[in-house]
Amino acid sequence: MANIKAKSAAFYNIGQLRLDYWNKLKVATSELARCVQEKKDDKKCSALTEQIITDLGSVEHYFAFPGITRLENLEAMLHRSEFMAFANRVSEITRQLVSDSYRGNPEALDDEEMSIEKVEAYERLDGVKKNYFEVLFIGDESKEEEASLRVKLKELRMANEQFEYGIVVQHSFQDALITLLFNYNIQAVVVKYAPAYLSKNISPIIEPYIQNALKLDFSEQDETDLGPILGSLIKTLRPELDTYYVTDSSLGSLKDSTLKNFERIFYNTEDLQELHLTIVRGIAERYETPFFSALKEYSQKPTGVFHAMPISRGNSVFKSRWINDFGEFYGRNMFLAETSATTGGLDSLLQPTGTLKKAQEMARDTYGSRQTFFVTNGTSTANKIVMQALVKPGDVVMIDRDCHKSHHYGLVLSGAYPVYLDSYPIQEYSMYGAVPLEQIKRKMLQLEEAGRLSKVKMLLLTNCTFDGLVYNVERVMEEVLAIKPDMIFLWDEAWFAFAGFTYNYKQRTGMFVANRLATKYKSNTYKKAYAKHIKSLGPNERPKMPDPDKVRIRVYSTQSTHKTLSSFRQGSMIHIWDEDFKRKSESTFLEAYMTHTSTSPNYQMLASLDVGRRQVQFEGYELVEKSIELAMVLRAKINGNPKLSKYFDVLTVQDFIPKQYRQTGLKEYYDKKDGWNRMEEAWEFDEFVLDPTKITLNIGRTGVDGDTFKNKYLMDKFSIQINKTSRNTVLFMTNIGTTRGSVTYLTNALLKIADSLDDDLLALNNREKEIRAKRIHSLTTEVPPLPDFSYFHHSFQAVPGVPGGDLRAAYFLAYNEDNYEYIMLSECLPALKKKRTLVASTFVIPYPPGFPVLVPGQVVSEEIIRFLLALDVSEIHGYRHDLGLRVFKESVLDRQKTVSAMGAASRAKKIN
Ligand SMILES: Cc1ncc(COP(=O)(O)O)c(C=O)c1O
């Protein structure tokens, strides 16, 4: 457990704090200018302005714009008493910072006299919009050398270059690390041989934001090792950045780890031009989008189409008198890029050799996998591909019962036996949490006792869940691998594609942990620790650490890129980190991929996956951090406003996660009294954490249920679209597209709803008030029970008395109409009383919650009937109100029992 107590802060992150300081400076400077103009005493104003500049200095130290030099220039203006010019300049810098316009007009940066008029004139001239970034240099340059470096690098730039960069120079390891943490513009890092370790700039103002960086302690390291250590840290924290190392050491004396952690090694004697060209080339390579570029180029070529697709090039659309509005709506490029060609620069998704291959390889490197496959039918299909690739009929899959339906259907197709795992219930809000590790291990030991553990192939969990619960992926994998070292993990990261781009989140993703554990188990340190651990065990104690000689790292994750990153709908990816992929699974994977992938994949979607990859490589860190910031702002705004908290509250970490799974004790991210709590420690240690970008609003006190609130209040009145509701909650999410404006719009909408609820209340008569109170009582206290998975009927159990069911047999048994019958829900409880066993013959999936409460072959328990009776949703797949529940006939179950017993006997024989 970490012993650093995370400090609370007044602002969620350094970006917020920085803008606040610039705004404060703006106010102080105009006040100072006014005092001087009106010949009032300006001492107080001057002192305040000086203080703000000093404080800002400790922040600006980490940025190129406006940066410490501009701040020093401002201070000099102040000392020269140029108050008006000073106020104008501060106001302009603040405007550029707030609007981010400095990045669109990099020329403006170096023009100290740049004014709003000049910027506008520049924009009017339609100057080339360059891609601006910053390069971090770490070395021991003096101020003069630093200034000369800036000038020389500037001279090397050509006017027509697409990229433009500023530089931040740091002199210590700690300052470099803080720059990487704070500065979203950094795209490349140049480490010069042996930087100092300790920072001389850390002020109390920035301390709360650098807790993680301060926890790392390399002060005892030889200074010559600090450069390579920094390189390796960058590969963990911000692997998308290009890293370069400048040294005097000969190639032979450099360690392999140094060579591995830097894109290129430079010698001090090499000229600056080479470095400059390498930096720009590195950016250009990442900017490449092989498939999107090929598609763009293809669309511009004149081609005759004697193939499928009349809409290709818009031919059947723009000529039509009846559907040309379709063409106008989407625009010409959409149709020019519609083609079924796989040559001419394009490629075949089913057997890629060119641009799609390259695009997938670039995605692989960006997402940290060993193989990445694009999927054009969403994660629903990605999940089925992975399931079919890795398990066969009769294998056992441990799976969270409330996972997405695609997994259950995948099990039917593959014929594997599911062992369902129950997530802990969150009764009060009619939701499920996630599966505790203890339960997973307990079920594994149960299977071991029954001689079935060798049949278990895969553990499948949803991370993060729709509601934002995130597993401790590393702990789950370590403890499961200690029991079964060849377990395959499928992490359904449909809602978590963005997580790989900021460290807190990344450490809880499948790919990152796979990589980390593979390295760990191969290390001598681990092998020694394991040997010691084995020696320390008592006679009947089982090892708690995975055996390094047996463990295999086999991890798959499926991500709906389209849900949280930039991609057209249905754009998804499968990421693989499987040591045995080539040897054991590649051919079955490719077969499964062929089974489910269309021979006519949508090119727009594939191009969007390619471009989405470019985006996260350049601005993933920034955009993800900003979407977290906005979520935090929204949480604080709602909970801090008394008008809103009369009807709503944002559910907190402790509402979602029972105490025993919150080892660090974090209860919520924001506290009215203490400000922001740091999330880092909890994300490192707790069994479960809550993704703050999933904001669940408790609306029980409004007396309106979730579904009605979503449709009648948010959508009809304010055109606010949300996805998930429960009986008494609605879920909002922020993502990389969320803007400050949309957060404000939502807050205002909630305020208006609160006003209208107040007005409604005033207009009610006494009887209506009673009815309303009853509704509120029902929504806040009368919560329906949340049933666990009951069990498979013994006719469908893989082995009698052992978890695991033959879902596929039950599913196909119901293909014959004679095998099932319907029973009305109202008759189910009396039937159970008369000792009838009801067995579902179909999936029953209510929306919400959106996962099966019944699967084929499952015994219908009293709790499940009560849950279905209490459900007030209209959409239940697999169930028709007019027909009732579809269950197997009793006579069929008897027959099936005999068949199943024969099967079990033969299986038992095989086990023995
Ligand atoms: C956990 C989970 N997995 C998979 C999917 C399916 O993803 P897609 O919509 O990309 O097919 C969803 C969809 O909501 C989901 O919530």
Describe the structure.
- The chain has 912 residues and is α/β, with parallel strands linked by helices.
- Strands 6-15-14-13-11-7-8 form a 7-stranded mixed β-sheet, with helices on both faces. Strands 2-1-3-4-5 form a 5-stranded parallel β-sheet. Strands 16-20-21 form a 3-stranded antiparallel β-sheet.
- β22 and β23 form a beta hairpin.
- The model is unreliable at 1-7 and 908-912 (pLDDT under 50).
- Residues 378-380, 383, 404, 406, 462, 466, 492, 494, 560, 572 line the site of pyridoxal-5'-phosphate (PLP).
Structural class: alpha/beta
Bound molecules: pyridoxal-5'-phosphate
**Percent helix among the residues?**
40-55%
Count of strand segments: 27
**Radius of gyration, in angstroms, nearest whole number:** 31 Å
> In DSSP terms, counting alpha (H) and pi (I) runs of 4 or more, how many helices?
37
Global morphology = globular
Low-confidence segments, given as residue ranges, are 1-7, 908-912
Biggest beta sheet attributes? 7 strands, mixed
Strand content: 5-15%
**Integer average pLDDT:** 89
Distance between the termini: 44 Å
